[in-house]
Design goal:
single chain; 2 domains; 67% helix
């Protein structure tokens, strides 16, 4: 059986170990974020035509990254670019405007159902 004092010492040691690792974790995260920012900048510099389609880029890159997490970033981009360009081409002629006054007259379901079941 562990005494309260031993338990407290174990907990304090564990806390100290965790706190000592935080600077390494934070620096790794910061470097990763910086690296990703540089990759995004390079991507849009290399593909300026995609800068106006960031939603499509983000969606396709997220899909590719999820499907192929072990590929390096450049290989993921090679896989994603044709799909991104295809998505943009597919949605080019779809109107993306918002109707300022949508029809909000929702009829009850009973009003839309034919209740005579084919009876004359």
């Amino acid at each position: 059986m562990i005494t309260k004092e031993e338990e407290r010492r174990i907990i304090d040691t564990a806390k100290e170990e965790i706190l000592l690792t935080l600077p390494d974790v934070w620096s790794s995260l910061f470097l990763e974020m910086k690296s990703q920012g540089e990759l995004y900048t390079k991507f849009y510099t290399d593909n300026p035509d995609l800068a106006q389609h960031k939603d499509a880029v983000k969606a396709i890159m997220g899909d590719i990254t999820g499907r192929f997490p072990n590929l390096d970033h450049s290989a993921q981009i090679k896989k994603a670019l044709p799909k991104i360009r295809q998505r943009i081409a597919d949605t080019k002629n779809i109107p993306m405007t918002v109707n300022p006054s949508p029809d909000t007259d929702f009829k009850p379901l009973e009003a839309t159902i034919d209740t005579n079941n084919g009876a004359i």
